[in-house]
What we know:
With 102 residues, the protein is of the alpha+beta class. The protein is elongated and about 65 Å long. The chain has helices at residues 14-21, 43-51, 60-70, 88-96, and strands at residues 2-5, 8-11, 33-36, 39-42, 73-75. The protein contains four helices and five strands, in the order E-E-H-E-E-H-H-E-H. The longest helix has 11 residues, at 60-70. A three-stranded antiparallel sheet has the order 4-3-5. A two-stranded antiparallel sheet has the order 1-2. The mean pLDDT is 87. The relative contact order is 0.18.
Amino acid sequence: MRCVIARFPFDLTKSGVLESMKGVKPEQVSGESVIIGRRTYPVKQVGQVVTRQDRRDFSAGEVLRAMTRLGFTCRSLPAAAPTRVLNPFQQASAMLGSPAAI
């Protein structure tokens, strides 16, 4: 499949990406990720290995689109947990803390 990453065209195949990532230890994931084989890699690490370019030269979105089109499972940033809004009574109770046991 032909794709453009950082304004450069690349002919990527699923087997080619699997071969490129073989033996590469995944870094800690803190954002978008791609599952290749049984490992989860950060998107920027995959882009760097596959394109041999500096991570600053391409966006995570470019790599995510390419990996999705190749059939890899991609995960975006996890959604933030909804914040619970306290009413004034609950807020005052939380500020005072729980009563001490006698």
